[in-house]
């Protein structure tokens, strides 16, 4: 007997990495020496203090009970302190902060809280694919707005204002931007706030890469008037290498947090207390942590730049975040290019196509790869160059 699935599943496909990684794992299982340079999953450990806090919290009386949907009061206070110290943003921990089981959860909660069937959502192209898939799943319609290198990966407000925006309820923005690494700036965020206010749009800034190779982290909530029209998602996944623990937060006006809580409280039963205790320690960690992490990422990025150059790519050295966004030579199909490298060099890189049509002709490298593995990838290509040079000499002699 076959039970028909919901029609909403017809609007989405399996996440690219979910599907492609099965192929990559199968190649590795067959004995291929696969180097995965595609996924932004931190390979480094969280701070030791965080792990110790989580371990200690496991044996505390009451640790295994259901937890508050709003999280521990001390976690919300730690988030408020973090926002004040790092972004100079004052938030009320009672009603302007909601802890999440990862910011990805927040994308769904916000969409369910605000979108009706037929509503429209402004989604960046290129951008994080989940914005589109969640919009489709809730029955709304994604309206893609272009981000291009010639405009520094910023929205074209003149072009946007000429569109019919009457049905648009939400606009997703993401700076530092994934996948391009564009950082964003106060001038841009002021324009976005004014645009959202003019068109009565909820602006949602996804901000998980603030502290990765970025000397000027900015919260959208630091802009005058933002609290009235904007929400901000943030995460401990990238900053503190806690991706698997699933800790994030959404911040904004009381009315918006209350709306999201209505959804969240019907979908989970609170975050495990031990993880919350670890998150508190992470949010209060000293600045030396950020320096240490960025030193490692900076060294890796130098090597990735070298690899990208070998592949004939160009890239922006001012970009921030956990990835290197590289442009292929003109005319090369990125999907075919990365498959050729996967099958012939046993190296997995992300094609830019999966982030939208404006990602065509680009590839994305993750910095969540050891220096040794990046050097090995470089060596595999240099070995081919040496073989070609030797073959050329032999052919000339013959």
Automatic annotation (TrEMBL):
SUPFAM superfamilies: PLP-dependent transferases
Every Aminotransferase class I/classII large domain range: 33-381
Entry EC number(s): 2.6.1.-
Cofactor(s) required, per the database record: pyridoxal 5'-phosphate
Highest taxon in the source lineage: Bacteria
GO MF terms held by the record: transaminase activity
Swiss-Prot/TrEMBL keywords: Aminotransferase, Transferase
Coiled coil segments of this chain: none
Listed transmembrane segments: none
Span of the signal peptide: none
Family: Belongs to the class-I pyridoxal-phosphate-dependent aminotransferase family.
The name this protein goes by in its record: Aminotransferase
Naturally occurring in which organism (per UniProt): Aquimarina rubra
